Amino acid sequence: MTLISAAEPGVYQAAEGTVQSGAWLLVALPALGAAILLVGGRKTDKWGHWLGVVMSWAAFVWGALLFFSLLGADAEERAIHLHLFTWIQAGTFQLDAGLLVDQLSIAFVLLVTFVGSLIHVYSVAYMEHDPDRRRFFAYLNLFVASMLLLVLADSYLLMFVGWEGVGLASYLLIGFWNHNPAYATAAKKAFIVNRVGDVGLSLAIMAMFAAFGSVSFTDVFANADSASENKLTVIGLLLLVGACGKSAQFPLQSWLGDAMAGPTPVSALIHAATMVTAGVYLVVRSGPVYIGAPDAQLVVVIVGAITLVYGAIVGCAKDDIKKALAASTMSQIGYMMLAAGLGPVGAAFAIFHLLTHGFFKAGMFLGAGSVMHGMNDSVNMRTFGRLSGVMKITWVTFGLGWLAIIGFPLLSGFWSKDKIIEAAFIGEGWRPWVFGLTAMLAAGITAFYMSRLFFMTFQGKEKRWNDDAHPHESPALMTVPMMILAIGSAFLGLALGVTNGLVHWLEPVTGAHGEEEPVLSVPVITGATLVLVAVGVALAWRMYWQASVPVTAPRGSLLTRAARHDLFQDDINEGLFMRPGQYLTRALVFVDNRGVDGAVRGLAALIGGLGGRLRLLQTGLVRSYAASMLAGVVILLGGMLAVRL
Amino acid sequence: MDFPWLTVIGAVPLAGSAVIAALPKALAPRARHVALGVSLVAFVLTVVAALQFDTARAGEIQLTELHSWIGEFGVSYALGVNGIGLVMVALSTVLVPVCVLAAWNEVDEEKARLFYGLIMVLEAMMVGVFAARDLFLFYVFFEAILIPVYFLIGAFGGNEQRRRYAAVKFLSYSLTGGLIMLVGVIALYHAGPGGEQGFLIDQLTGLQFSSPAAERLMFISLFIAFAIKAPIWPVHTWLPDAAAEAPAGVAVLLVGVLDKIGTFGMLTLCLPLFPGASKWAAPTILALAVVSVLYGALLAIGQTDLKRLIAYTSISHFGFIVLGIFAMTSTGQAGSTLYMVNHGFSTAALFLVAGMLIHRRGSADIDEYGGLQRTTPVLAAGFLLAGLSSLALPGMSSFVSEFMVLTGTFIKYPAVAALATLGIVLAALYILLTYQRMFTGPVKEYSNGWKDLSTREVLVVAPLVVVILFLGVYPKPVLDVINPAISTTMQQVGVTDPEPTVAVEGENK
């Protein structure tokens, strides 16, 4: 085993003290909030949103207390297990429900509850005029509870409960305005594509049970090194299918763009900062499985590499500010996935980037929401331009997010994304060159499309506003969360990266890596990346700041048109699955009515013939029943006699 | 043999039906009150009986009663339940009051006595069939139960022409199955020790058959009857008609409880009575089960009638139940038993909410709905919750059982389990497509003035939702009752669970 880890995988301390044994409150508090708001109904309309806010912050406070209790412990004793109750017990299948608070899950807890709570606050103002604001907060609380269950669960099956819970919350929130049929379709699509991924995850869990006789992290991780490489490869690939669904990775990425139908705070929280990164969590958490399955790891890296390029290309062509950000999310998660697939060399950086991305992408989505708020809910960047003057706070906070994501030196993305690029250059043979260069080139594309987005919205030669647009800055309930996230976008990377603090913190979970060197020296990688980023920004500057931007999109090149159509992902899915599925269903309905049923109707007619005619059966109910019973009794008696003889 | 609990649980609704029949015409509207009261009494009695039941010995038959009935034919009046029988009796007596309450305003006054009287008879029969410990007595209940159901479908519900057709179709299928089964029942008696108690199931368990062929033929005769009852592909087509034409409350009892007689029979009769033949037939049956899972789900996607759609989803679910039974692992079989219970609740919720929708709209055609989430949000939430339970969302009880079935199958037949797992995508499609068509989109004119769920309707749906959520989080109370019975069944069949394929370190399980 190449894993050098302080603690044996799967060995955890028992929870001690109020803070640790109360870890279940992290899930229970927001769940209670959701329950009160949903069951209470309209009666809670007046104050419901504040209850949602309070429950979310309460979970954050408890999470922070937990974090400090872990911080006080020795590095090897920072994985706390809390047993809850016997969940499923049947035959050989024995599973208790419990929570695992360790270095990895607490990082997620803090991200989810902190960013989540800020977004709760923002939503109070953003959803102010929506008659269903209370229901919105109920779903947000449901999401937070499910997400915390997902990351705190101590077994794959319990994690799956949270996994589907966030999927449900996502479905409900994408379709929050489902009186618009397109939004209802988007919600359904997200759920269905995720279910395809769930087939993989479910089978992975079953395969683990078949192999290890258990699906708890403890048992699976402790025994993973005794399993054959084949088994681990199969399990790893199946887990990846699940991760692809949840994290919108190729080839299950098609739902994320449509998911932007949800209110913008939802896009920020669920479809940028937290839920969509659950796939990365799954792969990193399953490190002990992947470590023994290099082929599965390679596939993870390939999926990540494809997706990061795919998202970046799509991001260059979108004029819808939310869809452009969604494409960017896909691409950034591609980076994380790639890093997660590299194993101990990259896993900690995947989580690092996940945390910084959670801040800057959530911040930018909230900024986009603020823009929409001021622009009559328009999302078309071609009708924006030079908003910097009228929305100063939004401009500055968004600007910090933009600089962070493109990897501007010393801002958050610089620390986390560049580390991934460096890690991608580690290895032997063709891989470091292919993956490293891909990741590096994509950094340049990222700089281009994010600058395009930023310039089209806030800068540029001219204002292209619609006549009825009167942009204005958003209220403080919205701007304060944006400012806090912007501070995180700027400095979180520095705080966690400069001392490598986060990487060391995560080492017991992700495994420490040795002294592997990238195939290019680090300064060369950093320098080249910065050059590419500068080129990307400069290109965007020439095309979208210096030149005027047409309000109607030009026809564009073949690639542009393809990218606008998300590289034909929907057409492919429709051609391959949807239409054949519809034909099959129609054919089966036809056969079921004619064929299967017809054959049996013949039988019915036969029986009818015994009692008279079919017509008689339909009119003389009682008589025919009597006749049938008589036949039954005759046969019965005959049979009895036969036995007696 | 102490107090005859099971007889009393069955006799109470039977007496209730007599009371309802004897009601003067002026009191006909009171029939529903009597039915509700009586079914609640039966429910309370079931709870008390369950408390007498020793969970630790749930693998053995308890609450037994034994009386000679037709001695010269070897027929006894023998009742008793192990854990499996107990949960099925409980499911029946829980759902009947719910269905009575659901039908509260749906039956014409002049027909009310007949309707509720028949429901009470049906309840008595259901208790009997799940409690019978004499094969002939089981057969009698198995056939007699057709009578109330036949009239409940044929005399109530939708369009007269269609409901009569559905009733006759139901009867034709069931009688065919019953007659085929009768041959097997008699042949089995013949193969057994005979005598005054020759039909006792205990006497017929563990027989040495003259030839494998004989055992297989007897197995097939029982299995066909149960497969029609359950129903699984390709003998399923009676169910969509019957469920679509029956009033919602009857559809619940039909699909939620009566069809379980089929899977109950497979698990508690086919397997212990014919262990060799069961193992022999398992691969074929697993194939039929997988076809049912996928076929039922695809057909559900293609339906335009709400109740037919729910019926097809049940065919898919029965596929899962049969899969778990014949995978021959304790996880799979315990999962199937739990599935029977959970499916009872989730299908009940679906059918009853569907009934509330149809009652308001006057049509079961899905395309005539739309936009209801805005007009009747609580109704929409009820439908969505029931639907999520049907698609086995984790956190709901159905997830636990479906996962157990799939895992129990996977450890012996990974490819079969993988195919069946595709059903979870199809399940999401049939539920969410329906939800989209009926509840989302702009508010339409037809729903002007619609009222959201009344208190009575909330009282119908809420208990089901509470049970679904509770058993999703904490299925232990039910599993504790089921597990010992399953390990007995596994011993009777002579199969063991496969060991984990990876050598597991010392102290770990």
UniProtKB/TrEMBL annotation, chain A:
Subcellular location: Endomembrane system; Membrane
UniProt name for this protein: NADH-quinone oxidoreductase subunit L
Domain NADH-Ubiquinone oxidoreductase (complex I) chain 5 N-terminal: 87-137
Cited Gene3D superfamilies: 1.20.5.2700
Keywords: Membrane, Transmembrane, Transmembrane helix
TM ranges: 22-40, 47-68, 104-124, 136-153, 159-178, 199-222, 264-284, 296-313, 333-352, 395-415, 435-455, 476-499, 519-541, 622-643
InterPro entries linked: NADHpl_OxRdtase_5_subgr (IPR018393), ND/Mrp_TM (IPR001750), NU5C-like (IPR003945), Proton_antipo_N (IPR001516)
Coiled coil: none
Membrane-protein topology: Multi-pass membrane protein
Keyword Membrane: yes
Entry keyword Cytoplasm: no
Ranges for domain NADH:quinone oxidoreductase/Mrp antiporter transmembrane: 153-439
Domain of life, source organism: Bacteria
Automatic annotation (TrEMBL), chain B:
Cellular compartments annotated: Endomembrane system; Membrane
Major localization listed first in the record, in broad terms: membrane
Membrane-related topology note: Multi-pass membrane protein
Domain NADH:quinone oxidoreductase/Mrp antiporter transmembrane: from-to ranges: 132-425
UniProt entry keywords in alphabetical sequence: Membrane, Transmembrane, Transmembrane helix
Membrane-spanning intervals of the chain: 6-27, 34-53, 73-102, 114-132, 138-158, 170-191, 217-239, 251-274, 280-302, 309-328, 340-358, 378-401, 413-435, 456-474
Keyword Mitochondrion: no
Family: Belongs to the complex I subunit 4 family.
The name this protein goes by in its record: NADH-quinone oxidoreductase subunit M
Source organism: Kineosporia mesophila
